[in-house]
Amino acid sequence: MRNSTLFVQRGHLFCFILFFVLGMILVWPSLHYPMVWDDLHLIREYSPQELRSTWSDNWDPSNTETAGFRPLSTYFNGLRYALFGENVALHRVFLITLFALFLTLMVWIAEIYGLSRDIGILAMSLVYASKYNSFHYVWIADGIHLFQALFFAVSLLALLQGLRTINSSQREKGQQNSNHYTKLVWKGLLILLFSIALAGLGLLVREDSLNFVLTLPLLGAYYSRNHFSLSAKTSYTALRNSLLPHLFYSFTLVSMIAAWWTYRATIVDESTLSTLTISGWIQHFHLSFLPHGLTSFDLLSKGFIVGWFCFLLFLSIYAVIKKIYWPGSMLFWLICTFVAASSGIVAARNNLLLIPITFAMLALGAFIDSIKQPDQTLIRYALVASLLGAIYISWTASQTYHPFSIETIAVNSRTIYAPESSSLAIPDERRLAIQAQLALVGINGPADIERIPELAEAAIKAGRYTPAGIGEPFVSRLPSLYVP
Fold first, then answer.
1. Which long-range contacts (CB under 8 A, 24 or more apart) does 226-230 make?
2. Is residue 27 classed exposed, middle or buried when 0-12, 13-18 and 19+ CB atoms within 10 A define those classes?
3. How far apart are CA 92 and CA 136, in angstroms?
4. Where exactly are the structural domains of the chain?
5. Which residue of 5, 299, 316, 340 has the fewest CB atoms within a 10 Å radius of its CB?
6. How many CB atoms lie within 10 A of CB 478?
7. Contact at 8 Å (CB) between 396 and 477?
């Protein structure tokens, strides 16, 4: 593990600017797409009564979304609407900013765990460009995943700072400076509690934060093992002093999770737990290593997807030939990926892969960082080529949310006109705009919803698979949350 610092450096500002520019490149084709689907009724002004009710009832006042205890989701959606109103471009630039901040924090964290900065930047760029993460800046409501991810990243940084502070107190104790020692211990414990509080806030954003909050004790233990030089030869006293903060943190974190889950159970019907499936966990885990996805739509996309598999195969053969086995923190990041991917147990959806993909790319980065020059330089060029391919595929995936894609027409028609959607609180200006948008393709009321398959068939016959003109429906080449 490199001698890294927990203090921000000027290089991290460069990372943020780089990621912001990359984000603008990714979002540019879809920057002005109108709101779609859940955006229509989630991104709005909420009354004080609606906001208060989220602490004792379902997070969605309309009760049409998946039931959950997510009060901060509703607050965040209301805040976004207060800041940006109906300006979709500003909404997406805001999400790009959050994404850039999250990835910058993860590069910083990766450095603390021993990864070189340039490899960390390449790895996080692949996270950004992954087609599975395009949801978080094109589909405005789905940007909530960036909000919860930021809580995780800052919570982890606080955990590491708390552990470092407590460890430094041991030196003061050794120098018989008991007063300063006590202050440092209490300061470290308070920072650990702050970390747990941030993790708790993440749980109040979305329940699936639990899947990566559970990695925090692992991340803390691995940091201590490597940074504080603990080994089998470490004295009992030193080992005990190192373990106590981890036991305190783990016990308090688990207690917080138990209290949160107990209270949540009084609000949310847990009958949905009967749908748990291990196959979803496995699917999330293996998709975390595939930033290009599995679905091709032309020769170029197929080349990038096959090329990525060849790249992974090459690295595997290279590892065998060079006898590189679990270098650096690779195995550790793989374990974190497996734990975080457990969100697939409840719902195997492609937009739940942000943290698992982040861990998976850190595992890949740890392996590449162990390769010596000049081989590493060639592999870096391959990563850059893969990044370009991921950008190309993400651009295509974002077309699903174009106002005249069949999928957008279908979900917007149901949201505006279906009888079960009559209770949705959609701002009048937005409702009128979407109605006018649907009218351009002949959808003027509930009865016209049945015409959508005809529109899709006509688009296929005309060969329209990319945005054409105003009022011309097309079939997106990478549709659905559930197509890998």
1. 226/1, 226/113, 226/114, 226/329, 227/1, 227/164, 227/167, 228/167
2. buried
3. 9
4. 402-461
5. 299
6. 20
7. yes
> Three-state SS for 7?
coil
Q: Residues near 1 by Cβ (< 8 Å), separated by ≥ 6?
A: 112, 113, 114, 226, 227, 329
Task: Give dist(CA 195, CA 154) in Å, integer.
Answer: 8
**Closest Cα partner for 482 from 338, 309, 347, 391?**
347
What would the pLDDT profile of 336-359 be if each residue is shown by its tens digit? Answer: 999 998 887 877 788 889 999 999
- At residue 362, the 3 state secondary structure works out as helix
Could you please report the per-residue DSSP string of 114-149? Answer: T--HHHHHHHHHHHHH-GGGTHHHHSGGGGHHHHHH
Half-sphere exposure of 231 (CA within 13 A, CB side): 2
Question: What's the chain's length in residues?
Answer: 484
Tell me, rounded to whole angstroms, the distance of Cα 138 from its chain centroid.
Answer: 14
Residue that wins the pLDDT comparison between 174 and 446 = 446
User: Coil, helix or strand for 48?
Assistant: helix
d(CA 86, CA 43): 9
Could you give the percent of the chain with pLDDT greater than 90? Answer: 58
Strand positions, DSSP E, 264-313: none
Amino acid (1-letter code) at residue 321 = I
- SS3 label, residue 45: coil
∠ CA 229-230-234, nearest 5°, is 115
Q: How many angstroms separate the CA atoms of 212 and 205, rounded?
A: 13
Q: Using one digit for the tens of pLDDT, what is the confidence trace for 391-448?
A: 999 999 999 999 999 999 999 999 999 887 778 889 989 999 999 999 999 999 999 8
State phi, psi for 243 to the nearest 5 degrees: -75, -35
Extract the tokens encoding 280.
């979803």
Both tokens of 417, joined, read: 């006109």
User: Which whole-number Å values give the CA distances from 332 to 25, 127, 223, in the listed order?
Assistant: 32, 18, 11
CB neighbour list of residue 482: distance below 8 Å, 6 or more residues apart? 348, 349, 350
Task: Give the other-Cβ count within 10 Å of 346's Cβ.
Answer: 19
How far is CA 203 from its chain centroid?
14
In which band, very low, low, confident or very high, does the pLDDT at 232 lie, cut at 50, 70 and 90? Answer: very low
- Predicted model pTM: 0.91
Joined tokens for residue 296: 């091709």
